[in-house]
Amino acid sequence: MWKYIRKRLILAVVILLGVSMLIYLLSMLMPTDYIDRQTAPALSNGTMTLEDVTRLKELYGLADKSFLGIVGSYARWLGGTFTGNLGFSFLYGKPVSQVINEYMWTSFTLALIAFIIETAVSIPMGIRAAVNQYGGYDYTVSVLAMIGTALPSFFLAALLMNVFCIHLGWFPLQGLTTATKIFAPDAHMEIFLDKAWHLVLPIMVLVLLGIGGLMRFTRTNMLEVMNSDYIRTARAKGLSEHTVIYKHAFRNTLIPLVTTLSGSLPGLFGGAMITETVFAVPGIGYIALRATMQGDIPFIMGYNMFLAILTVVGMLISDLMYMVVDPRVKLK
Amino acid sequence: MKETKKVGGANPRQEKAKKNSRYTDVSGAEIIQDENFHVMSPGRMVAKRFFRSKLSVIGLCMIIFVFVFSFIGPFVVDVTWGYGETQVFKIERVSSMVTTADFDAADGKIYQYYDESQSHIYFKAPISWEHWLGTDTSGFDIFVRLMYGGRISLTISFLVIFLETILGVFFGGIAGYFGKWVDQLIMRIVDIFFCLPGLPILLILSATIASIEAIPAEHRIYYLMGCLTLIGWSGTARLVRGQILMLREQEYMMAAETTGIPARKKIFKHLIPNVMPQLIVTMTLGLGGIILYESTLSYLGLGVPFPRAAWGSMIALADPSKGQEILANYPNMWVPAGILIIVTVLGFSFIGDGLRDAFDPRMKR
Q: B295 and B311 in contact (C-beta within 8 Å)?
């Protein structure tokens, strides 16, 4: 078992190295330097010279765009990454790791709540649909689930805003806090409620988009289990349908569910770029989209690396969980 | 009754069937068809099972509708109304704004302040007989723009899925067939591409593409979608490799082995055709995903450039960061585009599901 884990870990490191090379190369090809944009007015009115700009770029390792230069700065960047130093974000004026750490918790809260609601709603739905395969409930829920997966997030967000914010006026349109209100510093409850009130619609969007996939996944796996021999045996023994479904079938459906769900946990830190941007929730996705549009290269690299690490960790967790949950799995 | 017909043999119908029979048995003798004996090709069996499912027929109708709408629609509009997506209409209408306010005057009475201002608006015309969905903020006909937007979305999604499949089949096929270090190498590359975050990488690439001056602005989206294939092929490669690893061990492959045909032929004539059913299903289901990607990029303003239409950029008009006016008062500008996206993506998933059930009834779920 330890051998297997070690093998997986080595593989993860190899993948991350490859991903980091690709991301670094792609970011380096990006032309819209934040420095160029920031210094353009100073250059045109003569307060800065071209040499100053070049010096600034050298400071950030962006000056030399030849192949060797990129390799050299990649090595320096990688070295820094191992010590936890991802560079300095131009746009936010702070170290990249600090910016990520600051904003990822908002995204995580948002995504975690959505994740819990999604799981709680879609798993029972999937089981019921599988038990009544091709029944009315199954068709309705399956079609609704498919519509959910076909919705573009920005369109769903616009629809919800139109109905709930503008016509009904129940929820605020954008942001995380009410800008016009001033809270006392010790009014934690009020601040919390205000934030929760702002997050209702973004969570709703994430839940509606995610429910379909998870429901169908549950249904597919449940059907597979329901068609297996030991379920027929259980029925032949004369067990009640309830026992057959929830004690025999559902337990085995849990294997793929637990592996997939635990594997998607790290991804919750990554942020929902479009949803956060539409609702102007200052999470990591919103921050990253702004940085990308402005050409803040150190932040872009740091963020993409962060996402890649989350994906790799997720894969690792789901592989390991598979082994923990299913004792039949033999390891090479 | 039937028995006599069969024995009689001189039945003209059976005579006809004998002539047209395309089926021969191993020794080369023709298999005689009569009405009690139907030979159905696998393709026809799949088609029959496909059309038996209601959802897949609905999906097919949805996709046919979208195709007719966005590929034939522009021609019809061009012939009958004689304009395209960038025709500006200035339709004048007067909008009056009334403001009232109460105030306490010096004499102690409450007076009402009343002001009516009139302004002329040329754009954002409401729904009318000439413009079925009105005109947008630039005076373009929304209905016509929906057609052109669909054309872009559908063209791009088909291009991307075909390129992705070609890449995936090629690398997956090689990895699955040769195994050993070739497999290891290709699968590690696949892993790396699999871990790339899709949307952020596309954002980076779009900035890079925009800076290359040799590429005209209208063509940027095609290059960008080309990059999407480079990110997206890894899934197909995994699928193909897995299938080929399984098929490689089967008896018919051993038979192929003994005939001594070259590896290229074994892969592309004996293995890939057997992966086709699954590939077609994945391709159909993938089309919807690419349409969503394309519309997201257009929504962010990275799709086809401004005067040209895309569904995503039409929905972007409702972005509340640019003001709530359109989001609140002009649903005719952005709701139809969203509905078309849903119809297209949903249609593809219905068809994909139907195909999966039709290809392999055992997998029906």
A: yes
